[in-house]
Amino acid sequence: MSFWQYLSNRHQQLLTDAFQHASAVFQCMVLATVIGVLIGVLTYRSDWAGNLAVTSTATILTIPSLALIGLLIPVLGLGVPPTVTALTLYGLLPIVRNAIVGLRGVDPALVDAAKGIGMSRAARLLRVELPLAWPPILTGIRVATQMLMGIAAVAAYASGPGLGNEIFRGIASLGSANALNEVLSGTLGIIVLALLFDAVYVGIGRLTIPRGIRA
Amino acid sequence: MPEDQPAQQPVQQSAEHSSVAGATIELESLTKRYPGTPEPAVDSVSMEIKAGETVIFVGPSGCGKSTTLKMINRLIEPSSGRIRINDEDVTAIDPVKLRRKVGYAIQSSGLFPHMTVAENIALVPKMVGWSKSRVKDRVEEMLDLVGLDPREFHGRYPRQLSGGQQQRVGVARALAADPPVLLMDEPFGAVDPITRDHLQDELIRLQHELHKTIVFVTHDFDEAIKLGDRIAVLREHSHIAQFDTPEAILTNPADEFVSGFVGAGAALKRLNLTRVRDVGIAEFPAVGVDEPLQSIFDRLRTSQHNELLLLDRRQRPYKWLRRGDLMRAKGSLARAGTIVHDTVTRDATLRDALEAVLTDSGGRVAVTGRRGEFVGVVDMETLMNSVQEMLEADRLTAMEHQHELAEQQAGQDQEHTRAEQEGATRAEPRS
């Protein structure tokens, strides 16, 4: 069976997998963004807390994804829980780091001005610091998403959802007629999804970064 | 602060401009100590600033002038001492509330780059809860006030403005919620000299309309002279070396530190403080270009100055005409005499006038009215005499001031010692 034939025969299954893959990455990204920005906001003011946050998230990233998921299975069981946990943890690092760098990079004169005109601590954060730190944070989110696209494939090892199932099925049946087609379709699907997500981020950037600070 | 009406500016005035006039500011032994440093950054500053007054803190960098300013709106919390604004002790109130009543403008404007000009200006009025329509009107009004066309600048972002325009918007934002007090921390430090000059003129005009209490920090003594009703010359730890009118500081610096800071040419700087309208503008024989030659001849012969000023058809100074000029030009008015290079208005400073007199061969400069029409002349002698009179008068007032200060100081010292003695006898625990 040629690759194209394989695609048209199995497109139902492939689309479902692709949708589940995208949906898992998307939900984990939302979670990672909320947690990551929160960690950034809580730690950027203090030298040691900020560094601790960056170092610990970086440490998580050094654990091979297959190993982390393997370690999570005995704790969380199979399926969605270990997948979401692992993806969210991996997504944290770029977001936490860029949030801290972005928030620390806001011109101190502007923070001073915000204070000086009578903005409360919360108003300063929400109306001045976060909007100004938003472009680097968004970059962090973009990088994290690209990374999670690949890592999400490994989640199939824990019976997670997504295009990883295609790849694992192919690898398991190497030598059989459809093995290559399965691996190829899974991999290409992930690449296409990654490109689509990136295009969406460009749009989000256009919509959410104020014209005054757009590069 | 409704209970202290009398302390405020006359009500009529504030009604006329529909804006809040200045408030008094009192600093009482304000001190800032940073942990780990033996010497305080600001050591026990006490001063009273009157309502509607512009006071300039001037001093070398690192003298604590900026720190002192930032303690007034408690961007830097004082270690000890009190701050009173309009007799209300603000040392312990919520700093956020305090800052909404105190305008704050800083160097390089401090505008938020992600907000438009209008959004920047609207920030404080919105925070204090003005209605939407009132905020909108106010933004237009403020842009107008600082000389920017509301329609053009409303929706622009700060990076689309020049440095001077940004600074104007910064001042507009500081004044938007109509605070009685305006603090300015080297606001014109980062713009080019010509723009700075314009902005200073604008500030003088604004203050003329608004009568806010302005505290302004600068390291530029010339800026201080130009803008200040009173100048506080500060040395290390924000010790006040002299706190007086620009005139008094120029003519009678309290000590060597102040005279060093005033720099050379105090008498020349004094010229900047007086306007042409304040000195005698002398009359001078003038004739129109349309007068018959014969009568011009006659006027020249009878004139005690040997000289006539020829005016053009709109009464503007045109040419200086000396006796003999006409003969040499063979009776042609068009070729006779020397063109008037430079004129001054009645609002020009004496320095400008002197400059013009020095460059003109006749030793005098023509003074013009609002539409450029000739009103009289100022000559070298008038300038010299009035400068000398001014310096003499300044010296006298400065000496009086110093006497008063010395007496006050003596009185305070006595009270201090008395209080200390009482404290010692009662053995009061002190914080």
Automatic annotation (TrEMBL), chain A:
One Pfam family this chain carries? Answer: BPD_transp_1
Membrane-crossing residue ranges in chain numbering: 24-44, 51-73, 183-204
Under InterPro entries, the record lists: ABC_transp_perm/SBD, MetI-like, MetI-like_sf
Q: Tell me the Gene3D superfamilies matching this sequence.
A: MetI-like
Some GO term, biological process aspect, for this entry: which one?
Answer: transmembrane transport
Localization recorded for this chain is:
Cell membrane; Membrane
Q: Which GO terms describe its cellular component?
A: plasma membrane
| Keyword set, alphabetical order | Membrane, Transmembrane, Transmembrane helix, Transport
Protein name as it appears in the record: Osmoprotectant transport system permease protein
**Family label:** Belongs to the binding-protein-dependent transport system permease family.
| Keyword presence, Chaperone | no
UniProt xrefs under PROSITE patterns: ABC_TM1 (PS50928)
The way this protein sits in the membrane is described as: Multi-pass membrane protein
UniProt keyword RNA-binding, yes or no:
no
This chain's source organism reads Actinacidiphila alni
Where the record annotates domain ABC transmembrane type-1, the positions are 18-201
From TrEMBL, chain B:
All residue ranges annotated as the ABC transporter domain in the record: 25-262
E.C. no: 7.6.2.9
Q: Basic and acidic residues bias located where? A: 413-431
Gene3D superfamilies according to UniProt: P-loop containing nucleotide triphosphate hydrolases (3.40.50.300)
Q: Which PROSITE patterns match?
A: ABC_TRANSPORTER_1, ABC_TRANSPORTER_2
Question: Which parts of the sequence are annotated with region: Disordered?
Answer: 1-22, 401-431
Q: What are the alphabetically sorted keywords of the record?
A: ATP-binding, Nucleotide-binding, Repeat, Transport
Q: Name one GO cellular component term.
A: membrane
**Chain intervals with Polar residues compositional bias:** 1-17
Gene Ontology terms for molecular function: ABC-type quaternary ammonium compound transporting activity; ATP binding; ATP hydrolysis activity
Q: What class of enzyme is it?
A: translocase
Which InterPro entries does the UniProt record give? AAA+_ATPase, ABC_transporter-like_ATP-bd, ABC_transporter-like_CS, CBS_dom, CBS_dom_sf, Gly-betaine_transp_ATP-bd, P-loop_NTPase
Query: Does the keyword section mention tRNA processing?
Result: no
GO annotation terms (biological process): glycine betaine transport
As for family, the record states: Belongs to the ABC transporter superfamily.
Name of this protein: ABC-type quaternary amine transporter
In its UniProt entry, the species of origin is given as: Actinacidiphila alni
